[in-house]
Amino acid sequence: MKYMKNKNKVFVTIISIILIVGSAIVRYSFYRQNKIEERSVEVTANITENWKKFEREEDRNKKLEVFKKVEKDKSAYQKEEDNQKEVIKEFEKTLEKMKTFFSEDYVKVISENTLADIEQISDKAKIITAKENLEKLLSTMKSENAILKLEKSEENTTNVENLIQKYTERIKAIEAEEE
Predict the structure, then answer these.
(1) pLDDT score of 5
(2) Which residue numbers in the chain have pLDDT < 50?
(3) Engineered SS bond to 54: which of 23, 25, 46, 66, CB 3.0-4.6 Å?
């Protein structure tokens, strides 16, 4: 009888320990999942805030700084043990939108400074202005490409260089005609 009581006490003690340990594991799991979710919400809010800052910013260099910050934050977040795919996708989506701003701006400046029928234009000042604008753009593109790594960077660079070359040749031809 005494043996049975001891056996029951041992059994109850073991069951109690298992329940306590199991409960602790479940609570820790919930706690950890909560922390992961809190971190995801925090990082996503930070991404959103940086996007708003990017949109509000007028200065191109400051926009580039915001881009670099978001890229750095993404890299740091990816190194975290419990990073979430959804948050990384949000980083990528935001960085892509930022890149689109720069890319579209390049295309806009190229378009504004592409002179149709260059051989027919005799206004040297107009050609010089377009050429200078394209030279500034080329310099900007080269400096920003190291950071942005845009897909069509090489294509745009080649296009701008070709336009600059055509304009240089046309300016020389106009000057030769003037002499």
Answers:
(1) 66
(2) none
(3) 66
14-17, long-range: CB < 8 A, 24+ apart: none
| pTM score over 0.90 | no
- CA–CA dist 98, 87 (Å, integer): 17
CA proximity to 61, closest of 120, 135, 157, 147: 147
CA-CA distance, 130 to 152, in Å (whole number)?
Answer: 22
Which string of b and e fits 36-67 if b means at least 16 CB within 10 Å?
A: eeebbeebbebbeebbeebeeeeeeeebbebb
Residues 98 and 67: beta-carbon distance below 8 Å: yes
DSSP 98-122: HHHHHHHHHHHHHHHTPPTTGGG--
Write the CB contacts of 164 (distance below 8 Å, at least 6 apart in sequence): 131, 134, 135, 138
Phi-psi category of residue 149: left, alpha or beta, with phi > 0 → left and psi -120 to 50 → alpha: left
- Tokens coding 134: 């394209």
pLDDT in tens, 43-73: 999 999 999 999 999 999 999 999 999 999 9
| Strand, helix or coil for residue 159 | helix
